[in-house]
Specification:
160 residues; Arc Repressor Mutant, subunit A; mainly alpha; 2 domains; three-stranded antiparallel beta sheet; 71% helix
């Protein structure tokens, strides 16, 4: 890689990132098919898995959904047996959502192998290189969020 110009490396990183995003997107499609869920449901299930038990309203906010869309998605996830609603222990009107045992098994069946092999995958990377990868991912996420906010203001389809 020492023979590459800086601009060539940046372009190669951009291309590799796009290919990685495409592969992740295809993987998520396959996960949806295996689970019998759609992409919106998968977003909600991801929020539940990362933060369980999680208040219903927080799921909608983090998944970028309206209250109605979020409720419909949670209904489907619950019907599939992957999550359940619970009464909030300190808020009489509040509802929490958590994964069921079936939901945890499904997540492990789909994503567990990657998590279990991550140590081997990254074993040849020094701590310094891992920190650089982490920085790239964190800064990339921040850039994606900023660009998402920017493009939400565009109405390109209306201009054609």
């Amino acid at each position: 890689m020492s023979g590459y110009k800086r601009s060539e490396l940046i372009a190669a990183i951009g291309k590799a990132t796009q290919l990685y995003q495409d592969a992740t997107d295809a993987f998520d499609d396959a996960a949806c098919e295996a689970l019998g869920l759609n992409r919106t449901d998968l977003k909600c299930a991801s929020v539940i898995a990362q933060r369980e038990p999680v208040p219903v309203g927080e799921i909608g906010k983090l998944a970028g959904l309206t209250r109605g869309a979020m409720t419909t998605a949670i209904d489907r996830i619950e019907r599939a047996g992957y999550a359940r609603r619970l009464r909030h222990p300190s808020d009489r009107r509040g509802v929490l959502v958590e994964l069921t045992a079936k939901g945890r098994r499904a997540i492990d069946a789909i994503w567990g192998e990657y998590v279990r092999t991550a140590e081997a995958f990254f074993s040849s990377y020094s701590a310094q290189k891992l920190k650089k990868i982490l920085r790239y991912l964190e800064e990339g996420r921040i850039a994606q969020q900023a660009n998402m906010a920017r493009i939400k203001t565009l109405r390109i389809a209306d201009r054609t």
